[in-house]
Amino acid sequence: MQQYTHENVRSIPHLPIYCDRYEDYRQFSPRHWHDHIEIIYVVSGSLQVDCGENEYTLQENEFFVINSNKIHGTQSYERVKVLLVQIPYVYLDSYIYDYGHIRFRECYETEHGSRKYEQMKSLLKSIAHIYRKKGKGYELRLMAKVNEFLYPNLPKKLYTCHIECVLKPA
């Protein structure tokens, strides 16, 4: 049986998440796992995502969601710009009942062009812009967009394109 490494994800100071916008050429991230939900948004170029037993190729303006503890890796064969957002299990568990048994939808390839998919892409573009520009108060704006990506219909239910579940009361 193949062994996979556990990636230790560090949050950004003053934020409960990890966010990075990087550019790389012929990038390779070996298969690994962590207890964060990971959102990969390709700003430009293309990126191969190996998730579980499946392989996906993301093109410019496409995204992929990887659930906590899911074995995955990425590789690019050209120059690629990527927004990476990692949201810890404990952050989501504090808001969602029985979060340990809930999985986000990972692949959206059949949703391309739909209103929901375009809204989700727009939010990821906003997250990338806010993170790149930073500036005073960016942390609050960034978390607002991340939460909007996860829960745009608060307080009744989560975005039906992702998951539906009952939120924990404040």
How would you describe this structure to a colleague?
The protein is globular, with a radius of gyration of 16 Å. The relative contact order is 0.18. It has helices at 89-93, 115-133, 138-150, and strands spanning 5-6, 18-25, 28-33, 36-44, 47-51, 54-58, 63-66, 72-75, 79-88. The strands form 2 sheets. Strands 1-3-8-5-6 form a 5-stranded mixed beta sheet, with no helix packed on it. α2 packs antiparallel against α3. 22% of the residues lie in helices and 31% in strands. β5 (47-51) and β6 form a beta hairpin. The chain is α+β, with helices and mostly antiparallel strands and 170 residues long. The protein has 3 helices and 9 strands.
Helix content: 10-25%
Category by helix and strand content: alpha+beta
Estimated radius of gyration: 16 Å
- Spell the H/E element sequence: EEEEEEEEEHHH
Unreliable segments of 5+ consecutive residues: 152-170
Average pLDDT: 82
Biggest beta sheet summary = 5 strands, mixed
In whole angstroms, how far apart are the ends? 43 Å
Strand order of the largest sheet: 1-3-8-5-6
**Percent of residues in beta strands:** 25-35%
Q: Tally the helices.
A: 3
Coarse morphology? globular
